[in-house]
Amino acid sequence: MPIIEIENLSHTYMKGTPLEHRALKGTSMVVNEGECIAIIGHTGSGKSTLIQHFNGLIRPDSGKVMIDGVDLSKKRIDIKGLRRKVGLVFQNPEDQIFEKLIGDDIAYGPFKLGLPLKEVRERVKWAMDMVGLDFEKMKDRQTFALSGGQKRKVALAGILALKPKILVLDEPTAGLDPKSRNELLDKIKFLNKTENLTVIFVSHNMEEVAYLADRVYVMANGTDVLSGTPEDIFTDKERLQLYQIGTPETVQALYRLKDHGYKVDTSAFTISEAAGEIIKVLANGGGENRG
Amino acid sequence: MASEFELSRNITIGQHVPTGSFIHRLDPRIKLLVFTILVIAIALNTSYVGNALGLLLSIYLFWASKIPVSYGLSGIKPAIPFIIILAVLQLIFQGNVFSGGTVFFEYGVILITSESIRLVIVSAVRFVEIILLSSVLTLSTSTTELTHAIQSLLSPLKKIKFPVHELSLIITIAIRFVPTFAIEMEKMMKAQASRGADFGSGEWWRIIQRTKDMLPIIIPLFNIALSRAEDLILAMESRCYTPGNDRSAYSVYRAIGRDYVVLIIGLLFSALLLFYHFPY
User: Fold this and answer.
1) pLDDT tens digits, residue range B216-234?
2) CB 3.0-4.6 Å disulfide test: which of A97, A133, A213, B253 passes with A128?
3) Residues of chain A found within 8 Å of residue B2, distances taken between Cβ atoms
4) Hey, CA dihedral for B221, B225, B230, B231, is it positive or negative?
């Protein structure tokens, strides 16, 4: 069932000023409940503008935006209810931490919802569990003394504590060290698969896209130019080059093997599948298999 | 509905809109000099006609620099409450200071005369003129040009050991970061709104509550400002910046004919505002 439907959406920044800038030109997108969607594309392709429509931070200039049955082009809508349903995690979300203690910062959202103290406490505990922070040990720690990866977890927990149905993340792993990155990706996957959150994320990292996404939307110049499963996208070599999108290193390695005349299946883009393909080549004695 | 978070929209100071017009190509030193003199002349002129002329000139300058006047006017929007409050205070309490002319109304300390009404109208118009003029200056001049201009205009002060370079650097950095922080603030408001924060929806008299509502924006913004400052220091130091050193500039400005023409016209106009006795 579609939870997000976007049709022919356009948006112009600073309308009526000399700095006017058309960021979106007729984008369409459909997201089904429980899916994990990746949005990829170059800087300035309109990704960030698009995702800010999901929780009504930007209202549609023209076109249709339906989020879980709410039509955003209508003037009077329950905007707070919408923001509760759609959790939006900005780039570098650790900037938004403002309370002294971790627990207090995560509790900010639930308190704003007017929930009773007991419920707030439970939500904070749940959210901290979700991102892998020990509630008892961490809730009274100072926020400013945390590492970058931990701060990001706190910021993510601050959004999760709102118990959103849809989680939207703008480059969730940018600037993280490899260990924190992998941890965070696993948490997102867990939220999507086990907690059944609909996840939409923007990423420049194709390994991440291959690892997480059920479907991929490619944006260029303010419109969606390509969509499909990671398999469809990463094997469409011509169009990838046209829109200058990278491919996961696994796909690159397989293509290079193929160019050298080895028989490999280039659509195997996950790490384990690609490893399997390479092992096959090796098991066949490598060179003998050249066609 | 314009976006409720589009803050940078109304900030015209510190933005640079390159249109390549005549005004843009003027020598920045001349531009800054003429601007300064004009602002002084406008600030001292108290006549209706003089200020009407000043207003016409500032609108003409927008036209000449090919920047829509409406964009300049949008920079006035945030200042409107101040202009109104100022006007009301002046109207009520300044009658005794500017007591000439016909008396229209008198009650206790409140004295409204034709002179105090003139003061109210003229100061409001003056405010608009000065905002428009400074907008033209900053919209048509890049920050680098502006720094050079400030530095070279203040350079005579070096003789009395005034830190000219440091001052112009401070001014440049301050102007340069106005739009940057507007964008950061916009982002922060959006991020906190996504967590359920709401701004400006409480009743206006609940000042403490409304201030508290702003804390989730102000505290992170301070953090960002400090870390930006640190980044800037590192960037400057890694380029071997040393305060107090003599440094040469990449671009050298040389005033040509049209610059002098503009200078002379600007001086004449200012002299007119300053010394001619307008009848109204």
Assistant:
1) 999 999 989 999 999 999 9
2) A133
3) 15
4) positive
